[in-house]
Input
Amino acid sequence: MEQGAKSVTAIATHGVLSGPALDRLRESSIRKIIITDTIETKEKKVLDNMDIVTVADVFGSAINRIHNDESVSALFEF
Output
């Protein structure tokens, strides 16, 4: 923001929200925070500007493909 950004979005695969993390995020100028549910959180939404995206479907599909000896990389081909 100090360098002229209009907004900041933070994205993390594993939202380790330990110690003072929530307070630091709450006090930051980050407009949007997106994390996955790979680490359990007590609530669906921890901060007003935070979205938690589920990975259950893609993990389930990967496990199913491994079990059926199918390609996992095919999940990510577009």
The mean pLDDT is 92. Residues 7 and 31 are 6 Å apart (CA to CA). The first strand starts at residue 9 and ends at 14. Strands lie at 9-14, 32-36, 50-53.
